[in-house]
Q: What sequence folds into this?
């Protein structure tokens, strides 16, 4: 008898989510476009760079919380632009202060300004300190399965390996390593960085990822709101394809209409 995979909601830090698409809020023309794209994406978790976003600390300036209200979305403050563990930890504490004790954060500690590749040593250090301080840490990391396992063992609530370099749009460059991370993980695995178009997102889901986080792929599209809608559908299609199970690859042809039992006329 064939075994079927029963779908379950995405669960992060004890909370269930219907959408498996997480979106960022940067790089849009204005907050109105941000709001339209987020709505079209169907995302329930929305991330933003704490140090680049006004959450009310700048009086009289547009406030992100006016267009992405906490009553409707789960906010995911991130540490974009941090290059040391110390800086990332300080940024998360600032987010907690600004958001009245909010504990769910996306940790990223970058290695340099040219590749924006994660510094895994600093990332491990920051994750350990944040978790000890009561934060729920979703963590951006390389596609190294050993590092991913260590981050999970520290207590990260989600592992977020890159598909390719941040903002590159190159899609998933190392599906084999991604598969290894998914196979061993007991927490959600979400591709973070490098998605360029809907087929990239669908592939991530077909590989078995629990979700995908993206910003540039939507915000830099010619029509961001339309691309947000496309990404929503791609995530859903990829998830269904994963659950359905693809057909085996074959070295020879296998006709859709077998010759056996055909009607001769």
A:
């Amino acid at each position: 008898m064939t075994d079927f995979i029963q779908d379950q909601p995405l669960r992060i830090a004890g909370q269930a989510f219907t959408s498996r698409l997480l979106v960022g809020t940067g790089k849009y023309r204005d907050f109105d476009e941000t709001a339209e794209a987020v709505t079209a994406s169907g995302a329930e978790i929305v991330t933003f760079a704490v140090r680049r976003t006004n959450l009310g600390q700048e009086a009289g300036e547009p406030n992100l919380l006016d267009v992405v209200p906490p009553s409707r979305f789960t906010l995911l403050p991130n540490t974009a632009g941090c290059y040391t563990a110390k800086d990332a930890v300080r940024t998360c504490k600032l987010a907690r202060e600004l958001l009245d004790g909010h504990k769910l954060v996306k940790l990223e500690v970058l290695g340099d300004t040219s590749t924006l590749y994660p510094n895994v040593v600093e990332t491990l250090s920051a994750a350990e300190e944040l978790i000890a301080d009561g934060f729920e840490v979703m963590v951006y990391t390389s596609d190294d399965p050993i590092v991913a396992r260590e981050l999970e063992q520290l207590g990260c609530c989600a592992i977020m390996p890159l598909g390719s370099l941040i903002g590159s749009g190159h899609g998933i460059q190392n599906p084999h390593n991604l598969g290894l991370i998914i196979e061993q993980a007991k927490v959600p695995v979400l591709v973070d960085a490098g998605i360029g178009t809907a087929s990239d997102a669908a592939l991530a889901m077909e590989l078995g990822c629990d979700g995908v986080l993206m910003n540039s792929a939507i915000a830099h599209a010619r029509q961001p709101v339309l691309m947000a809608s496309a990404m929503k559908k791609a995530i859903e299609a990829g998830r269904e394809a994963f659950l359905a199970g693809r057909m085996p690859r074959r070295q020879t042809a296998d006709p859709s209409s077998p010759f056996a039992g055909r009607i001769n006329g």
User: Anything to note?
Assistant: The chain has nine helices and ten strands. The longest strand covers residues 136-141.
